Amino acid sequence: LPQVPITLGVFLNSYYDVKFSVLGMAFATLGVLVTSLYQVWVGAKQHELQVNSMQLLYYQAPMSSAMLLFIIPFFEPVFGEGGIFGPWTLSAVIMVLLSGIIAFMVNLSIYWIIGNTSPVTYNMFGHFKFCITLLGGCLLFKDPLSVNQGLGILCTLLGILAYTHFKLSEQESSKSKLVQRP
Fold first, then answer.
1. CB 131 within 8 A of CB 153
2. pTM, two decimal places
3. SS3 call for 151
4. How many other β-carbons are positioned within 10 Å of the β-carbon of residue 9?
C-alpha cells in the first residue's frame, strides 16, 4: 500500500522534470528491470551463501572487473590522448582513484542495506535520496521546483514514512510474538 504514493510521487517528479521519449523510456525500463534483478540477486546470494556484505563484495568485484575488462575497449579509447594506456595527468589519476573508492562504498552500502533489510527497503532508500537530491538542488543551487514536483516530493516522502511505519510495526509484532512463546 505505501508503494502507491511513492510511485505517484516519483511519477509527478519525473513527469514535470524530464522530457519523455520512446528511446528514453525503453532505456529506463531496461534499467529498472536490470537493477531489480540485481538487487534480488544480491539478497538471495547473501542469504544462500550466509555471507555479509563485505564478503559478497569481495567475491563479486573481481568477476565484475574481469567482465568490464573485455567491454571497455569498445566504449573507451585504448591508446593515445585520453586512452587507458595514454598519458594521464595527476588530477586524472586522482579522479579515477576517487571514483573507484566511491563506487566501492556505493556497492558496499547496497549489499549492506539489502543484506540487513530487503531489496524493497533499498528501493525506498533510493527514492528518499532522489527526493533529497531534488530538494538540495532547489535549496542549494536555486533550481526551479514546480508545485507539481513539490507535491510529488511530499507524496513520495509520505509513502516512505508509511512504509517505514508498517515495517517497524511488523518488526515489533514479530518481536512480541517471540517473547510470548514459552
1. yes
2. 0.66
3. helix
4. 24
